[in-house]
Amino acid sequence: MASIWESQSTASQPSGWRRSFRHRFAHLWPRAAAAYVRDLSIRLPESPGHQKIAALTFDDGPTDAGTPLLLECLARHGLKATFFVLGENVRRFPARAREIVAAGHSLGNHFRRHIDCWKTRPREVIREITEGTRIIEETAGVSPAWCRPPFGRLTHAVVKWSRIHQQPIALWDVFPADYLEETTAESLRQVLEGRLRARSIVCLHDNVVSMQKTPAMLGQSLPGLISAGWSFSPLPGATARNASTQPTPPAAALIGAGSVDDGALDISANARDAAA
What does pTM read for this prediction? Predict the structure, then answer.
Protein backbone atom coordinates (compact mmCIF):
# COMPACT_ATOMS: atom_id res chain seq x y z
CA MET A 1 0.00 0.00 0.00
CA ALA A 2 1.47 3.35 -1.03
CA SER A 3 2.44 5.88 1.61
CA ILE A 4 0.38 9.05 1.85
CA TRP A 5 3.57 10.92 1.03
CA GLU A 6 5.53 9.23 -1.73
CA SER A 7 9.28 8.79 -1.44
CA GLN A 8 11.24 11.88 -2.36
CA SER A 9 13.02 9.87 -5.03
CA THR A 10 9.80 8.80 -6.76
CA ALA A 11 9.91 9.97 -10.36
CA SER A 12 6.16 10.12 -10.93
CA GLN A 13 3.69 11.52 -8.45
CA PRO A 14 0.04 10.44 -8.00
CA SER A 15 -2.63 12.69 -9.39
CA GLY A 16 -6.20 13.67 -8.66
CA TRP A 17 -7.63 13.14 -5.20
CA ARG A 18 -4.47 11.42 -3.90
CA ARG A 19 -2.32 14.47 -4.65
CA SER A 20 -4.96 16.77 -3.17
CA PHE A 21 -5.23 14.65 -0.03
CA ARG A 22 -1.44 14.53 0.43
CA HIS A 23 -1.14 18.31 0.17
CA ARG A 24 -4.03 18.85 2.58
CA PHE A 25 -2.55 16.32 4.99
CA ALA A 26 0.82 18.08 4.97
CA HIS A 27 -0.85 21.31 6.08
CA LEU A 28 -3.46 19.91 8.49
CA TRP A 29 -1.58 17.11 10.28
CA PRO A 30 0.76 19.37 12.32
CA ARG A 31 -2.18 21.42 13.56
CA ALA A 32 -4.08 18.29 14.57
CA ALA A 33 -1.03 16.81 16.31
CA ALA A 34 -0.36 20.05 18.21
CA ALA A 35 -3.87 19.89 19.64
CA TYR A 36 -2.98 16.65 21.43
CA VAL A 37 0.75 16.94 22.17
CA ARG A 38 1.18 19.86 24.53
CA ASP A 39 4.88 20.59 23.87
CA LEU A 40 4.81 20.26 20.08
CA SER A 41 5.60 23.48 18.20
CA ILE A 42 4.16 24.39 14.83
CA ARG A 43 4.79 28.14 15.29
CA LEU A 44 7.35 30.28 17.07
CA PRO A 45 6.55 31.26 20.68
CA GLU A 46 4.81 34.55 21.27
CA SER A 47 7.05 37.50 22.06
CA PRO A 48 6.37 41.17 22.75
CA GLY A 49 6.89 43.78 20.10
CA HIS A 50 7.64 42.85 16.50
CA GLN A 51 5.28 40.12 15.28
CA LYS A 52 6.16 39.83 11.57
CA ILE A 53 8.75 37.18 12.29
CA ALA A 54 8.95 33.61 11.01
CA ALA A 55 11.40 30.71 10.94
CA LEU A 56 12.83 29.11 7.81
CA THR A 57 13.67 25.42 8.20
CA PHE A 58 15.20 23.01 5.70
CA ASP A 59 14.83 19.22 5.95
CA ASP A 60 16.88 16.27 4.62
CA GLY A 61 20.33 17.79 4.09
CA PRO A 62 23.11 18.40 4.05
CA THR A 63 23.78 17.85 0.36
CA ASP A 64 26.92 18.60 -1.57
CA ALA A 65 25.17 20.65 -4.26
CA GLY A 66 22.11 22.06 -2.51
CA THR A 67 23.43 23.22 0.85
CA PRO A 68 25.86 25.79 -0.64
CA LEU A 69 23.02 27.26 -2.72
CA LEU A 70 20.84 27.69 0.35
CA LEU A 71 23.68 29.13 2.42
CA GLU A 72 24.49 31.63 -0.34
CA CYS A 73 20.85 32.67 -0.63
CA LEU A 74 20.47 33.14 3.12
CA ALA A 75 23.74 35.06 3.36
CA ARG A 76 22.70 37.35 0.51
CA HIS A 77 19.64 38.39 2.49
CA GLY A 78 21.31 38.38 5.91
CA LEU A 79 19.08 35.60 7.26
CA LYS A 80 19.61 32.66 9.60
CA ALA A 81 17.71 29.36 9.48
CA THR A 82 17.47 25.91 11.05
CA PHE A 83 18.56 22.86 9.04
CA PHE A 84 16.95 19.57 10.12
CA VAL A 85 19.65 17.22 8.90
CA LEU A 86 19.74 13.46 8.42
CA GLY A 87 22.56 11.69 10.24
CA GLU A 88 23.47 9.62 7.20
CA ASN A 89 23.86 12.81 5.15
CA VAL A 90 25.94 14.46 7.87
CA ARG A 91 28.28 11.46 7.70
CA ARG A 92 28.36 11.65 3.92
CA PHE A 93 28.94 15.42 3.76
CA PRO A 94 30.52 16.39 7.10
CA ALA A 95 32.09 19.56 5.70
CA ARG A 96 28.66 20.83 4.63
CA ALA A 97 27.24 20.27 8.12
CA ARG A 98 30.10 22.24 9.63
CA GLU A 99 29.62 25.00 7.05
CA ILE A 100 26.00 25.38 8.18
CA VAL A 101 27.12 25.90 11.77
CA ALA A 102 30.03 28.17 10.81
CA ALA A 103 27.61 30.41 8.92
CA GLY A 104 25.58 30.94 12.10
CA HIS A 105 22.69 28.64 11.30
CA SER A 106 21.46 25.87 13.58
CA LEU A 107 21.13 22.12 13.15
CA GLY A 108 18.04 20.14 14.08
CA ASN A 109 17.73 16.36 14.37
CA HIS A 110 15.82 14.76 11.45
CA PHE A 111 16.91 11.26 12.61
CA ARG A 112 19.66 9.10 11.14
CA ARG A 113 17.63 8.02 8.12
CA HIS A 114 14.39 9.25 6.56
CA ILE A 115 12.24 6.52 8.08
CA ASP A 116 8.48 6.33 8.42
CA CYS A 117 7.93 6.15 12.19
CA TRP A 118 4.39 4.86 11.68
CA LYS A 119 5.77 1.77 9.92
CA THR A 120 8.88 1.23 12.05
CA ARG A 121 9.22 -0.69 15.31
CA PRO A 122 9.52 1.66 18.32
CA ARG A 123 12.95 0.32 19.28
CA GLU A 124 14.25 1.06 15.80
CA VAL A 125 12.71 4.54 15.92
CA ILE A 126 14.66 5.21 19.12
CA ARG A 127 17.88 4.01 17.49
CA GLU A 128 17.29 6.36 14.57
CA ILE A 129 16.56 9.47 16.63
CA THR A 130 19.40 8.75 19.08
CA GLU A 131 21.97 8.08 16.38
CA GLY A 132 20.88 11.21 14.53
CA THR A 133 21.75 13.25 17.61
CA ARG A 134 25.07 11.47 18.18
CA ILE A 135 26.22 11.95 14.59
CA ILE A 136 25.44 15.68 14.69
CA GLU A 137 27.28 16.09 17.99
CA GLU A 138 30.34 14.15 16.89
CA THR A 139 30.57 15.73 13.43
CA ALA A 140 29.45 19.33 13.87
CA GLY A 141 30.26 19.86 17.56
CA VAL A 142 26.77 21.07 18.47
CA SER A 143 23.79 19.38 20.07
CA PRO A 144 20.53 19.78 18.16
CA ALA A 145 18.06 21.73 20.27
CA TRP A 146 15.06 20.54 18.24
CA CYS A 147 13.97 17.37 16.47
CA ARG A 148 11.59 16.77 13.59
CA PRO A 149 10.53 13.22 12.70
CA PRO A 150 10.59 12.43 8.97
CA PHE A 151 7.25 13.26 7.34
CA GLY A 152 6.30 14.86 10.68
CA ARG A 153 4.96 11.48 11.80
CA LEU A 154 4.85 11.18 15.57
CA THR A 155 4.73 8.14 17.83
CA HIS A 156 4.66 7.72 21.61
CA ALA A 157 8.33 6.76 21.45
CA VAL A 158 9.31 9.97 19.65
CA VAL A 159 7.29 12.18 22.00
CA LYS A 160 8.66 10.58 25.15
CA TRP A 161 12.25 10.54 23.85
CA SER A 162 12.04 14.25 23.04
CA ARG A 163 10.85 15.01 26.56
CA ILE A 164 13.50 12.89 28.26
CA HIS A 165 16.29 14.50 26.24
CA GLN A 166 14.79 18.00 26.25
CA GLN A 167 14.87 18.06 22.47
CA PRO A 168 11.39 19.39 21.65
CA ILE A 169 9.59 18.59 18.43
CA ALA A 170 9.10 21.27 15.80
CA LEU A 171 6.78 20.70 12.87
CA TRP A 172 5.45 23.56 10.70
CA ASP A 173 2.44 25.59 9.64
CA VAL A 174 3.68 26.50 6.14
CA PHE A 175 4.55 23.61 3.84
CA PRO A 176 5.16 24.50 0.16
CA ALA A 177 5.95 20.85 -0.75
CA ASP A 178 9.11 21.74 -2.65
CA TYR A 179 10.25 18.09 -2.61
CA LEU A 180 7.57 17.17 -5.16
CA GLU A 181 8.64 17.26 -8.80
CA GLU A 182 5.27 18.70 -9.83
CA THR A 183 5.72 21.92 -7.85
CA THR A 184 7.40 24.96 -9.38
CA ALA A 185 9.15 28.03 -8.04
CA GLU A 186 5.98 30.01 -8.72
CA SER A 187 3.68 27.56 -6.92
CA LEU A 188 6.08 27.50 -3.96
CA ARG A 189 6.10 31.30 -3.87
CA GLN A 190 2.30 31.41 -3.82
CA VAL A 191 2.12 28.98 -0.90
CA LEU A 192 4.84 30.75 1.09
CA GLU A 193 3.46 34.24 0.63
CA GLY A 194 -0.17 33.15 0.90
CA ARG A 195 0.16 31.11 4.09
CA LEU A 196 2.83 33.05 5.97
CA ARG A 197 1.59 34.34 9.32
CA ALA A 198 3.20 35.92 12.35
CA ARG A 199 5.44 33.31 14.04
CA SER A 200 5.11 30.79 11.18
CA ILE A 201 7.51 27.88 10.85
CA VAL A 202 8.19 27.23 7.17
CA CYS A 203 9.26 23.73 6.11
CA LEU A 204 11.40 23.55 2.96
CA HIS A 205 13.88 20.93 1.79
CA ASP A 206 17.54 20.50 0.90
CA ASN A 207 17.52 17.72 -1.69
CA VAL A 208 17.99 17.11 -5.40
CA VAL A 209 14.40 17.91 -6.39
CA SER A 210 13.96 21.00 -4.23
CA MET A 211 17.22 22.55 -5.38
CA GLN A 212 15.74 22.89 -8.87
CA LYS A 213 13.35 25.56 -7.58
CA THR A 214 13.64 26.43 -3.87
CA PRO A 215 16.65 28.78 -4.12
CA ALA A 216 14.98 30.56 -7.06
CA MET A 217 11.71 30.86 -5.14
CA LEU A 218 13.46 32.30 -2.09
CA GLY A 219 15.32 34.73 -4.31
CA GLN A 220 11.98 35.93 -5.66
CA SER A 221 10.04 36.04 -2.38
CA LEU A 222 12.49 37.17 0.28
CA PRO A 223 13.22 40.71 -1.00
CA GLY A 224 9.52 41.59 -1.06
CA LEU A 225 8.81 39.98 2.30
CA ILE A 226 11.75 41.74 3.93
CA SER A 227 10.66 45.06 2.40
CA ALA A 228 7.20 44.45 3.87
CA GLY A 229 8.72 44.19 7.34
CA TRP A 230 9.21 40.44 7.69
CA SER A 231 12.22 38.99 9.47
CA PHE A 232 13.37 35.37 9.65
CA SER A 233 15.32 33.59 12.36
CA PRO A 234 16.38 30.10 13.45
CA LEU A 235 14.20 28.27 15.93
CA PRO A 236 14.81 29.72 19.41
CA GLY A 237 17.52 28.22 21.58
CA ALA A 238 19.13 26.42 18.68
CA THR A 239 22.17 28.60 18.00
CA ALA A 240 24.17 28.57 21.23
CA ARG A 241 23.85 24.97 22.34
CA ASN A 242 27.24 23.26 22.15
CA ALA A 243 27.68 19.51 22.27
CA SER A 244 27.86 18.25 25.84
CA THR A 245 31.06 16.82 27.24
CA GLN A 246 28.94 13.78 28.04
CA PRO A 247 27.80 12.41 24.66
CA THR A 248 24.34 11.10 24.01
CA PRO A 249 24.22 7.48 25.25
CA PRO A 250 23.86 4.73 22.64
CA ALA A 251 20.33 3.83 21.63
CA ALA A 252 20.77 0.32 23.03
CA ALA A 253 21.38 1.75 26.49
CA LEU A 254 18.20 3.82 26.32
CA ILE A 255 16.13 0.88 25.16
CA GLY A 256 17.62 -1.43 27.76
CA ALA A 257 16.84 1.05 30.51
CA GLY A 258 13.21 1.11 29.46
CA SER A 259 13.31 4.89 29.05
CA VAL A 260 10.91 4.94 26.10
CA ASP A 261 7.64 3.11 25.70
CA ASP A 262 6.14 1.51 22.62
CA GLY A 263 3.02 2.44 20.77
CA ALA A 264 1.82 4.59 17.88
CA LEU A 265 0.53 8.13 18.01
CA ASP A 266 -2.40 9.10 15.84
CA ILE A 267 -5.06 11.79 16.02
CA SER A 268 -7.79 9.47 17.28
CA ALA A 269 -7.60 6.78 19.96
CA ASN A 270 -3.96 7.11 20.95
CA ALA A 271 -3.38 10.83 20.48
CA ARG A 272 -4.59 11.94 23.89
CA ASP A 273 -2.41 9.33 25.58
CA ALA A 274 0.68 10.96 24.06
CA ALA A 275 -0.05 14.21 25.87
CA ALA A 276 -0.56 12.54 29.24
Answer: 0.82
Q: Which residue ranges form the domains of the chain, and what is each CATH number?
A: 50-274 (3.20.20.370)
Q: How many Cβ atoms sit within 10 Å of the Cβ of residue 184?
A: 15
> What positions carry a catalytic annotation?
59, 205
Q: How confident is the model at residue 38 (pLDDT cuts 50, 70, 90)?
A: confident
Question: CA torsion 146→151→157→161, rounded to 10°?
Answer: -10
DSSP code of 84? E
Q: What's the one-letter identity of residue 177? A: A
Q: Kindly report the number of other CB atoms within 10 A of residue 206's CB atom.
A: 28
CB contact at 8 A, 168 and 22: no
pLDDT of residue 259: 40
Cβ-in-10-Å burial (0-12, 13-18, 19+) of 255 comes to: middle
Instruction: Give the whole-angstrom CA distance, residue 135 versus residue 128.
Output: 11
